[in-house]
Amino acid sequence: MTNPLFYAKILLFGEYGIIEDSQGLTLPYSFYKGTLKFSDNQSDFEKKSNESLQKYSDYLSTLELPKDFKIDVDAFKKDIEKGLFFDSNIPQGYGVGSSGALVAAIFEKYSFIKYIPESISKIQLKDLKKVFGELESYFHGKSSGIDPLICYMNLPILIENKESVDKVSIPKEEAGKGAIFLIDSGSVGETGPMVQIFFEKLKNEGFRKTLKEEFIKYNNACIDSFLNKEMTPFFKNLKNLSKWAYVHFKPMIPTNLYNAWKNGIDTNAYYLKLCGSGGGGYILGFAKDYEKAEKMLEGFNKEVIYRF
Which side of the chain, N or C, has fewer Cβ within a 10 Å radius? Predict the structure, then answer.
């Protein structure tokens, strides 16, 4: 059997808010993917990946995981000696879950108990998210476990709050004029420093207040209206969300997108928001008329991820 592919993920809504108990909505994104493979004579990429896996396996040796989610670290280490590496085209620092896919692939291959994602209960999801948080914290210092969970499940996931997640159905794509799309900022974003900025901002009582009373309200309303396919309230809340981010998340917005971000709000042709922690990588765009938005965003590399 060939090793399964693990897709990237896109956090459609909930960036930073999920740290403060907002809802989140995240989808698998099959354009980018990764899989564990063996190589005899390794290229530089394969060698580097193999060395990284070696270091990661040492970290796994130190973890005390719950018995239902234990990993066969010995088998993993033996395979690393045989030339195991992670063959992935998921860009790092772009907010699409490069480390999440790696963690999901390792768990799928080396966990003692094998799970069928479609059959996993809501309670198991909660436990799995916690375990994935521990497994991924090696890469980011602290992880919610959401990214590996999405990559592992390969299903849309609704983050209900800090503790609870559930599988969810998103409206079927249609060949309409509207689109959700990614814009490549052209630079890499580092999660750590961006999250640090956010925590600094949280020390300010005024920021905490507006985050809870405005950002989380708009964010949750966007998720609700999107899942119910109510596009008028969806775009109304999206505009508020984009405006709020332009004012309060400015350090996280790549500088080459400031003007485009504001232009979208002023013309109502499209709205932009962060995709993950920001600072670089991808930015998310939403437009009722994608052709019009595309012309206005000429010069930027764009990828459509959903049509409506």
Answer: N
